[in-house]
Amino acid sequence: MSSVPVTMTKEEVWSALVQTAHTLLMYNNHKRYVEDVLLKERPEISPQELAIRLSIPLGEALVLLSETRSPRGVRREGTEVAPKRDEGSLLDYTR
C-alpha cells in the first residue's frame, strides 16, 4: 500500500475542522449553551477547559469559541455558520 503525502494549507485544515464540527449532532446545542451561559460566566475560557467542561472534542471547542467570540455576522475566513434551528429541542416534545 503506497502512502500519498497530503499537503493542506492552514485555511484548508481549518475549513475541514469547521465542517466536521458542524456535522456533530449536538453542535448547535453546544453553541447556544456556550453563547448563553458559559461565555457570560467565563469570557476568557480556554478551548481545553471548554472541551473538558462539555466533554467534547478539542476541535469542536476551538470552532465553538471561534464562532461565538467573534462579533455577530463576522466570521473567520473559511468558516460557515451552522444554520440556526428554530425548531424546539427533543426535550420540548417529551414533556
Would you mind describing this structure in some detail?
With 95 residues, this protein is mostly helical. It has a domain at 26-78. It contains 4 helices and no strands. The relative contact order is 0.16. Mean pLDDT is 81; it is low at 73-86.
In short:
The chain has 95 residues and is mostly helical. Helices cover 52% and strands 0% of the residues. It is elongated and about 50 Å long.
Whole-number radius of gyration? 15 Å
Percent of residues in helices comes to 40-55%
Order of helices and strands: HHHH
Task: Quickly count the helices.
Answer: 4
| DSSP strand count | 0
Overall spatial form: elongated
The overall average pLDDT, rounded, is: 81
**Termini separation:** 54 Å
Counting helices, strands and paired strands, the structural category is: mainly alpha
**What kind of sheet is the major sheet?**
none
Note poorly predicted spans: 73-86
Taken as a percent bin, the fraction of beta residues is under 5%
Features:
single chain, 95 residues, mainly alpha, elongated
Spell out the blueprint of helices and strands:
Blueprint: H1 10-23, H2 27-41, H3 47-54, H4 58-69
Helix pairs in contact: 1-4, 2-4, 3-4
